[in-house]
Design a protein that fits this description.
The protein is an alpha+beta fold. The protein has a single domain, classed as 2-Layer Sandwich (NE0471 N-terminal domain-like). 20% of the residues lie in helices and 26% in strands. Strands 1-2-3 form a three-stranded antiparallel β-sheet. Strands 4-5-6 form a three-stranded antiparallel β-sheet. A hairpin with a 5-residue loop joins strand 5 and strand 6. The longest helix has 6 residues. The radius of gyration is 14 Å and the shape is globular. The N and C termini lie far apart (37 Å).
Length: 96
């Protein structure tokens, strides 16, 4: 039987915009990671976000991930783990 604590997924509770299209993310376990979002902001839905720092700064934590007012969002696992999550679900690598 899997215990409830083992089933809990790490999610994002706070997103603070930084310079150069980066974010400081606070996670449900209290850890904080910083991520450069430039590699994630591809495709037409992100065009205004990647070209306008004031639009990028409108980011907010929503439903365990991040989103912008126009509905653009990103996968929380890719942000938390800076790629695919490891098999053992260890703590995310800090980028500080």
């Amino acid at each position: 039987m899997v215990r409830e604590k083992e089933m809990a997924l790490l999610r994002i509770t706070k997103a603070e915009p930084l310079e150069d299209f980066s974010l400081r993310l606070t996670l449900t376990d209290g850890s904080v990671v910083e991520r450069d979002l430039r590699p994630f902001l591809r495709g037409p839905i992100f065009k205004h976000i990647r070209t306008d720092a004031s639009e990028f700064a409108r980011v907010r934590a929503q439903d365990g991930s991040i989103a912008w007012p126009d509905g653009a969002d990103l996968c929380p696992d890719a942000l938390i783990w800076n790629g695919l999550p490891p098999d053992d679900e260890s703590r995310p690598a800090s980028s500080k």
